[in-house]
Design a protein that fits this description.
Layout: E1 3-6, H1 10-21, E2 26-29, H2 33-42, E3 45-49, E4 52-56, E5 59-61, E6 69-74, H3 78-88, E7 92-100, H4 107-114, E8 119-125, E9 128-133, E10 136-141, E11 145-148, H5 159-164, E12 169-171, H6 175-195, H7 207-223, H8 227-230, H9 233-243, H10 250-256, H11 267-276, H12 282-298
Length: about 300
């Protein structure tokens, strides 16, 4: 079965290249004809890995193509996911499977609500990749992807294709705990790297601030019924800060390049859930307000 991939950014490109290299049928779905023309001029998708750079002439199309879609990897940003999926909704066959590879929480529910006849599989990835040029992805660090479906726990048979493609992954019955844990990690690290204009490792110099934020995130996770995601959060945050000391967070990179951030699906979602549980989280509120003010000063979207 063909892998249609919506969103040819860093992770979408990384998955596409590895699936194509394994001999699996792949189709990139690009935003419009202009972007499709640019892709074709370059001759395909380039993947840069340690010791090698390879060009993959993967077939590409626009959302308006008529070809039916049975399996769709949605790899665009959280704020683009619902609209992007809506553009190909008419092409989805009944029972189509969507793999939602978005940061944070909130966009997954929006997509699922729009497509009640499709199966939405949630994914949480720690793989490192970035684009250094258009349609050129640099594989920056081996990670892991967790997959699961809260509504239908049975694992799909195509996981074997991911194994063949060298994509490390595991099916889990508790994918929401994984997504909440990653959201908490991102909330504890990413906004501070933006506000302090620093690499991840420099947050070790703001240990008290990090600890206070982690304490409130633990409160939130427990209130939302995610006690397992709360366990050892502060220790893991400090471990990530140390392990990725030389890296710039994804939110830092978005701001540095003048791009919209996923603040609404990280801190925004966390605070919305806190409101639902009548939970007062003053440190997270203040962090959100500081980040919003910073984005306003830079002329960037705040939602």
């Amino acid at each position: 079965m063909t892998w249609h991939i919506l969103g040819a950014g860093s992770l979408g490109g990384l998955w596409a290249a590895r699936l194509a290299r394994a001999g699996l049928p792949v189709r990139l779905i690009l935003r419009d004809r202009a972007r499709l023309a640019s892709y074709r001029r370059l001759g395909g998708l380039t993947l840069v890995e340690p010791g090698q750079t390879s060009l993959y002439p993967i077939a590409a199309q626009t959302p308006e193509e008529a070809e039916p879609i049975r399996r769709l990897l949605v790899a665009c940003k959280a704020y683009d996911a619902e609209e992007a999926v809506a553009r190909v909704a008419a092409r989805l066959v009944p029972g189509a499977e969507l793999i939602l590879l978005q940061n944070g929480l909130g966009s997954q529910d929006a997509v699922a609500a729009r497509l009640p006849r499709a199966r939405c599989i949630l994914a949480s990835s720690t793989e490192g990749a970035y684009r250094d040029q258009q349609f050129r992805v640099v594989f920056a660090g081996q990670g892991f992807t967790w997959l699961g479906d809260p509504r239908e726990p049975g694992a799909p048979t195509w996981l074997a294709e991911l194994v063949a493609a060298g994509i490390p992954q595991q099916w889990t019955a508790d994918i929401l705990a994984r997504l909440w844990r990653k959201l908490a990690l991102n909330c504890a690290i990413n906004p501070l790297t933006v506000l302090h204009a620093c690499r991840n490792g420099e947050l070790a110099g703001h240990a008290e601030e990090v600890a206070g934020i982690c304490a409130e995130l633990v409160e939130l996770l427990r209130a939302c019924g995610q006690a397992s995601a709360a366990q050892g959060l502060h220790e893991e945050v400090m471990g990530v800060i140390q392990a990725t000391a030389a890296n710039y967070s994804s939110m830092y990179q978005d701001v540095a390049h003048g791009r919209r951030t996923e603040i609404a699906y990280l801190l925004g979602h966390a605070l919305a859930q806190a409101g639902r549980h009548d939970l007062q989280l003053p440190r997270l509120e203040a962090l959100h307000q500081r980040l919003v003010a910073h984005l306003v000063r830079l002329g960037l979207p705040t939602g």
